[in-house]
Specification:
The structure holds 3 protein chains of 3 kinds. By secondary structure, chain A is an all-alpha fold. Chain A is built from 13 helices and no strands. In chain C, 60% of the residues lie in helices and 1% in strands. In chain C, α8 runs antiparallel to α10 and α9 runs antiparallel to α10. Classes of the chains: A mainly alpha, B alpha/beta, C mainly alpha.
Chain lengths: 329, 385, 354
C-alpha cells in the first residue's frame, strides 16, 4: 500500500507545485511585459466584477499582500475559477471546457494507435532482427528526430494540400455551405474524424518510433533472459515464446512512456497550431499572441494536470501488469 | 548405484559423437567445444565437470540445440534414442537432433528431454503464476488433457517436490530460492522425460537447501527412472551422485570414467587437481592443493595440451602435441569407457604415482562406491536469497 | 522505493545467464567499457558525417553565403523567385536570397541547442548523480523535483515565458531557458545508472578504503556514466533544436538575423504552402530534419555501447540464421586457424595409435 500512497503523495505535491508556479509566472515577467499584461487587463471588455477579480489575482491593487493574493488565487482555483480571458472576454474555464475535449481526444486517439502499432512492430523487429527490418529503424528515427511541426507541415502539404486525402484545417467542416450541427450525429462525427486524421497521424507518427525502438531494444534484452530460453526448451509454440518475451519487455516500455508523456502532449499542441485544430494548443497560441495571461495560465495548468493524469494512468497500468510492483503496492 | 541404472544401464538414450561448437562464424569464430563424445545410458547419471569456461554448459546446450547466438554447431552427431511412454519393450526411434527441424525438436523437447537451469530465479517467468508455468507444457504436449486434469497434474507435481499446492497461485518472486528450484524441477518432470539436463541446478542455493534438493532429486530419479546429465564445477558432488563422469578442460573432454574409478584412480592431472580442490567431509585429512593458474581463454589457447601451463607433470611433448582421448595403456581389457587425454598414460613411461593405476582399487563396484565418504559440497557460488 | 515509473537501470549487470554465451561471452562490466569505441556501424558513420557538415556550416556558413541575409534582390517586386542559376534556392517575398539565409540560419539554431545540451547535461549530472549516489532524503527530494519537471509541458512554459523576451538575441540566455525544461529526463536516467554503479564492487571497495566522496564520484562513477551522458546530451540537443525552431516558427522568438525557424515563420505568414513556394519552406525544414536525423543516428551507436546486446546476436550474420531454440549446424566450417592445428595433431596421434 505504501508505494501507491507515495505515488499519490507525489501527484499531490506535483499538482501543488504546478499551481504555485502558475501563480508566480506573471510575477516573474520583466517590467514592460508586466505593464503590457496590466494594460491588457484594464482595456479588456469584461464586467467590473471580473475586472476586480483579475486585478486582485495579478496584484494590481497593492493593498493586498502577496500571501493573501496567493490564498485568494487558491480559493478561486478550488471553485474552478481560472479568471477571465482578456482577449475573448469570457471565463477561461468556459474556453477550456470547449477546447480541452478536442485535445484529449486527439492525444488519446494518437497514443492508442501509436502504442498498438509501435509495440507490435517493435516485437517483430526485436524478435526477427533481420537486416531488412533493422533498416526500418532509421526511417522510424526520421519521425522521431524531426520536430512535430515540421512533420505536421509535411503531412499538411502532401496528404492534405496536394493529394486532398484529408482536410487540413479546423476540427470539423465550418465552411460557408456547411450544414453540420454539433453533437452525436453521423455527419458531424464523420467530419470530426476526417479533420482529426492528419493531426492524429502526425502525433502518432512522431511517437510510434519511440514505441518501436523501445520495444525492440527491450525485446532484445528480454530474449537474453533464461525464462525465454526455458519457454523454447519446453517446446512451446513459437508464438508463445515470443509472447512470454513480449509480456516482460512491455513493462519498461510503459515506464519509458511515462517519461515522454509531456513531450507527446506539447507536440500535439504544436500540431494543433499547424492544423488550426480547435483544441487548447491553438487557444494558447492565440493567447500568447494577444498577451492574454489568464488564458495562457489556465491552459498551462490544465495541460500540466493532464500530463500528471496520464502519468498516473501509466503508473496504474504498470502496477496491474507487473506482479512484483503489485506486491510492493 | 540404483536398481534402475544396474538393470538397463547398457542401453544408450543419448549419444554425442565428435561434437564441435564454435562461437561466431568464419574468421572470427572461436571453438568452444572440440570433438566431444559422450554416451548417456538409460536411467544413468552422467556428470559433466570442469571449471567455468571449460565448455561444459556450451556442450549441454548445444546438444539440445538451445545454445544462443553466436553459438554454432560445427560438427559431430547427437542421437537421441527415443522410447516414448506407452510403447512397449524395445521400440526405440532414433532422432538425429542436429538434423531435426524446429517442429521435430519441439516434439522431443520437455516431453523426452527437459532442462533444469542454473538459476531458477531467472528461469521462471517473473510475471506468470506458478500454475501457468507448470501447465503450459501440458497444454502444448498433452492436447487431450482438459483444464481440470492439468490443474490436478500441477498439484501432483508440486506435492512431488514437497511444495504445498496453495503455492500454485504464487508468483516466482513470492517463493524462496529453494522453492523456486523445486518448482523448476517439478516443471522439468511434468511430462516424465527420459533425459533431464541439469545445469548446476543447486549452485545458487545455500548448502543445506542444496543437500535437501539433491537428495529428493535422486529419490525421484530412482522412482521415475529418467537419465540425468548433471553439470557442475563441484567434482566431489558428482563423485557422490553420478554413475559416470566426464571432465572437461578448455572445450575438450580430458577424462571419462566411472565415478568410483575417477575418485580412486584419476588418470588425468586435471582430474586429480579438481579432486584435490574439494574437501571430502568425512575422509582423511588431505592438504588442499587446488590447481595453480586459471583456465585459458578460448581465443588464446596454449598449443599442445591446453592444460600444460598449469600441469605439474608437463613434459616437452605436452607443449607441442595434443594428446588424444584414449584408454590408458595399462587399463584392463574391457574398460572401454575409461579414457584420458594425457601423454603420461600412453605407456612410453610409467605415470607418476598419483595418476597410476592402483592394483587394489576395484573399478566401479558397489564396494568401491560404499567406501567413498559422503562428500559434502564445499562451495557455493553465492546465495541469492 | 522502486516507483513504478522509474525506468530500470539500463544495464544493471546481471550474474548467471544460463545458456550459450554464458561460458564465453564477457558479462558487460562497466569498467571494461571505459575505453570502448563507438561501433563503426554505417548508421554512426553517416550520422557523424552529416553532423560534421552542419557544424562546419554553422561556423563558416555565413562567410561562404553569396549574399548577406538581409540583402534584397529587388526592392520593388514582392513575388518570390523560384530557384535559378543566380539564386540557387530562389528568393522569398522580400527578395532575400534563400540559399544565403539557409547557410547563415543554422548558426544560432545549432549554437543554442548545443548550449542547452551542455547546461541541461550539467544539471542532470548534478541532480541525477547526487541523488543516485547519496540516496536517502536527498534522493527523495531530488527525485520528486525531477519528476515534477518531467511532468511540466516544457514547450508551453517556454511559449509563455519567451514571448516577453521576444527580441532577445542572446543565445546563452535562450539556451539556458530551454535547458531548464530539459534536464529532468537525463537526471532520471543518470540516477538509475548511478544507483546500479554504486553497488559495484570497485565502488564499494573505494568507499571502504576511505576515498573521498567527490573523488569516488569523479574517478569511479562518472567515467562509467559517459555513454549515458552522451546519449542524454544528444537527446537534449535534439530537443533543443526542435524547441528553438518551433518557438521561432511560432514567432515567439524573433531574433534580428534570420534562422531556419524564422524563415519558416515568414513562409507561413506569407502562405507559402498554398502559393506553392516550396523553395521557401522546404530548405530550412529539410535542414532541421537532417540535423535531427544525424543526431538520432549517432544515438544509435551510443545505445549499442550502453547495451552491447543490441549489437550482438543478430539473427542473420554471414549467411547464418540464428533462431532462439534452433542452434544452427554448420558442418563445413573447418577454416579455424587455431584449432585446425590441434585437430591435425589429434588426427596424427589417432593414426599412430591405430
Amino acid at each position: 500500500m505504501t508505494t501507491i500512497l507515495r505515488r499519490l503523495g507525489f501527484y499531490a505535491l506535483a499538482a501543488f507545485a504546478a499551481v504555485t508556479l502558475n501563480f508566480f509566472l506573471p510575477r516573474m515577467l520583466p517590467g514592460d511585459a508586466l505593464q503590457n499584461v496590466l494594460s491588457n487587463i484594464k482595456s479588456a471588455d469584461i464586467t467590473p466584477s471580473q475586472l476586480a477579480a483579475l486585478t486582485a489575482q495579478y496584484g494590481l491593487d497593492s493593498r493586498q499582500s502577496l500571501v493573501s493574493q496567493y490564498l485568494g488565487y487558491l480559493g478561486h482555483l478550488f471553485q474552478g475559477d481560472l479568471g477571465t480571458s482578456t482577449s475573448k472576454s469570457v471565463p477561461v474555464s468556459q474556453i477550456l471546457a470547449s477546447d480541452l475535449p478536442w485535445t484529449i481526444g486527439l492525444i488519446g486517439a494518437a497514443t492508442v494507435v501509436a502504442f498498438l502499432l509501435g509495440t507490435a512492430l517493435g516485437i517483430v523487429v526485436g524478435w526477427k532482427r533481420s537486416g531488412v527490418l533493422d533498416a526500418l529503424l532509421p526511417v522510424a528515427t526520421f519521425f522521431q528526430a524531426v520536430p512535430y511541426f515540421i512533420l505536421a507541415l509535411l503531412l499538411l502539404i502532401t496528404a492534405g494540400f496536394n493529394w486532398h486525402w484529408f482536410p487540413y484545417s479546423g476540427g470539423y467542416e465550418t465552411g460557408r455551405y456547411a450544414t453540420l450541427t454539433e453533437g452525436w450525429n453521423g455527419p458531424f462525427v464523420t467530419s470530426v474524424v476526417e479533420h482529426g486524421t492528419l493531426p492524429a497521424a502526425t502525433v502518432a507518427l512522431a511517437s510510434v518510433a519511440g514505441w518501436i525502438i523501445g520495444m525492440r531494444n527491450m525485446m532484445i534484452t528480454t530474449m537474453d533472459e533464461d525464462y525465454v530460453l526455458v519457454a523454447a526448451a519446453k517446446g512451446l509454440p513459437q508464438w508463445k515464446v515470443v509472447g512470454i518475451a513480449a509480456r516482460n519487455a512491455i513493462l519498461p516500455s510503459i515506464s519509458n512512456f511515462a517519461l515522454s508523456i509531456s513531450l507527446v502532449v506539447t507536440g500535439s499542441i504544436v500540431t494543433e497550431i499547424v492544423f488550426s485544430y480547435p483544441g487548447v494548443g491553438y487557444a494558447i497560441y492565440e493567447g500568447v499572441l494577444a498577451a492574454d495571461y489568464p488564458l495562457m495560465q489556465g491552459i498551462l495548468l490544465v495541460v500540466t494536470f493532464t500530463v500528471l493524469g496520464a502519468n498516473l494512468l501509466a503508473d496504474l497500468a504498470y502496477v496491474i501488469l507487473d506482479p512484483r510492483a503489485r506486491k510492493e503496492a | 548405484m540404483s536398481a534402475v541404472s544396474a538393470t538397463v544401464k547398457a542401453e544408450p538414450v543419448l549419444e554425442v559423437r565428435g561434437l564441435c561448437v564454435d562461437y561466431g562464424v568464419g574468421s572470427s569464430a572461436v571453438r568452444a567445444v572440440t570433438d566431444a563424445s559422450l554416451t548417456l545410458h538409460r536411467g544413468e547419471v552422467l556428470g559433466l565437470a570442469g571449471e567455468s569456461g571449460s565448455g561444459k554448459s556450451t556442450l549441454a546446450y548445444a546438444l539440445t540445440r538451445l545454445l544462443r547466438a553466436p553459438g554454432v554447431i560445427s560438427g559431430g552427431d547427437v542421437l537421441f534414442h527415443n522410447r516414448p511412454q506407452g510403447s512397449a519393450g524395445e521400440r526405440t526411434e532414433t532422432v538425429d537432433l542436429l538434423a531435426a527441424d524446429l517442429a521435430k525438436l519441439r516434439q522431443i523437447r520437455w516431453s523426452q528431454l527437459a532442462v533444469v537451469f542454473q538459476s531458477a530465479m531467472h528461469a521462471l517467468n517473473p510475471v506468470a503464476r506458478i500454475d501457468a508455468q507448470l501447465t503450459d507444457v501440458l497444454k502444448a504436449h498433452r492436447r487431450q488433457m482438459d483444464g481440470a486434469a492439468r490443474r490436478e497434474r500441477a498439484v501432483e507435481l508440486l506435492r512431488m517436490v514437497g511444495i504445498s499446492p496453495d503455492r500454485l497461485r504464487s508468483y516466482p518472486h513470492e517463493l524462496s530460492g529453494g522453492m523456486r528450484q523445486r518448482v523448476m524441477i517439478a516443471m522439468a518432470l511434468a511430462l516424465e522425460p527420459q533425459v533431464v539436463i541439469m545445469d548446476e541446478p543447486t549452485t545458487a542455493l545455500d548448502v543445506v537447501t542444496q543437500r535437501e534438493i539433491l537428495e529428493e532429486l535422486m529419490l525421484l530419479r530412482e522412482r521415475l527412472g529418467f537419465a540425468v546429465v548433471f553439470i557442475t564445477h563441484d567434482l566431489s558432488l558428482l563423485i557422490e551422485l553420478a554413475d559416470s563422469i566426464a571432465i572437461m578442460y578448455a572445450g575438450r573432454i580430458v577424462e571419462r570414467a566411472g565415478a568410483g574409478q575417477l575418485f580412486h584412480t584419476p588418470r588425468h592431472p586435471y582430474s586429480l587437481g579438481l579432486l584435490q580442490s574439494f574437501p571430502a567431509l568425512h575422509g582423511e585429512r588431505v592438504r588442499m592443493e587446488g590447481i595453480p593458474g586459471s583456465p585459458p581463454t578460448l581465443t588464446a589457447l596454449p598449443g599442445g595440451c591446453a592444460f600444460h601451463p598449469r600441469c605439474r607433470y608437463a613434459m616437452d611433448r605436452c607443449h607441442s602435441e595434443q594428446p588424444a582421448l584414449l584408454s590408458p595403456h595399462d587399463e584392463p581389457i574391457g574398460a572401454q569407457d575409461r579414457v584420458a587425454a594425457c601423454w603420461l598414460q600412453d605407456g612410453t613411461q610409467p605415470p607418476p604415482e598419483p595418476l597410476a593405476l592402483r592394483p587394489g582399487a576395484a573399478p566401479d563396484t558397489d564396494a568401491a562406491l560404499a567406501a567413498i565418504p559422503a562428500a559434502a559440497p564445499a562451495t557455493t557460488e553465492g546465495d541469492e536469497q | 522505493m522502486a516507483a513504478p515509473t522509474v525506468a530500470p537501470p539500463p544495464e544493471a549487470p546481471r550474474s548467471g545467464t544460463g545458456a550459450g554465451a554464458g561460458d564465453t561471452a564477457a558479462t558487460p562490466v562497466p569498467r571494461a567499457r571505459r575505453g570502448s569505441r563507438i561501433p563503426r556501424s554505417p548508421k554512426v558513420v553517416v550520422g557523424a558525417g552529416m553532423l560534421a557538415l552542419f557544424a562546419l556550416l554553422a561556423v563558416f556558413g555565413p562567410m561562404i553565403a553569396p549574399h548577406a541575409p538581409d540583402w534584397q534582390a529587388s526592392t520593388t517586386s514582392s513575388v518570390p523567385l523560384p530557384p535559378s542559376s543566380s539564386h540557387w534556392l530562389g528568393t522569398d517575398q522580400q527578395q532575400h536570397d534563400i540559399f544565403s539565409q539557409v547557410l547563415a540560419g543554422g548558426r544560432d539554431t545549432l549554437l543554442i541547442a548545443f548550449v542547452a545540451g551542455i547546461i541541461a547535461t550539467c544539471l542532470s549530472v548534478l541532480v541525477g548523480v547526487t541523488a543516485g549516489y547519496l540516496g536517502g532524503w536527498v534522493d527523495e527530494v531530488l527525485s520528486i523535483l525531477s519528476n515534477i519537471f518531467l511532468a511540466l509541458p516544457g514547450l508551453l512554459i517556454l511559449l509563455v515565458v519567451m514571448h516577453p523576451l521576444k527580441n532577445t538575441d542572446n543565445p546563452l540566455l535562450i539556451g539556458a531557458v530551454i535547458a531548464l525544461t530539459a534536464w529532468a529526463w537525463g537526471a532520471r536516467v543518470l540516477r538509475a545508472q548511478t544507483m546500479a554503479l554504486r553497488n559495484q564492487d570497485y565502488v564499494e571497495s573505494a568507499r571502504v578504503i576511505g576515498e573521498r566522496k567527490a573523488r569516488i564520484i569523479l574517478v569511479e562513477v562518472l567515467p562509467n556514466l559517459l555513454p549515458i551522458l552522451a546519449s542524454s546530451f544528444i537527446f537534449t540537443v535534439i530537443y533543443g533544436i526542435g524547441t528553438y525552431v518551433s518557438l521561432s516558427w511560432l514567432g515567439v522568438i524573433n531574433p534580428s538575423s534570420p534562422t531556419w525557424g524564422t524563415m519558416l515563420n515568414s513562409a507561413q505568414s506569407s502562405s507559402a504552402i498554398i502559393n506553392s513556394y516550396w523553395w521557401w519552406y522546404a530548405p530550412p525544414a529539410l535542414c532541421v530534419a537532417l540535423v535531427g536525423i544525424a543526431l538520432a543516428l549517432l544515438n544509435f551507436g551510443i545505445d549499442e555501447i550502453i547495451n552491447p546486446r543490441l549489437r550482438s546476436a543478430r539473427t542473420h550474420r554471414k549467411g547464418v540464421r540464428y533462431t532462439l531454440g534452433l542452434t544452427p549446424v554448420l558442418r563445413d566450417s573447418t577454416a579455424l586457424e587455431g584449432s585446425a592445428v590441434n585437430d591435425s595433431a589429434v588426427k596424427a596421434v589417432k593414426g599412430a595409435a591405430a
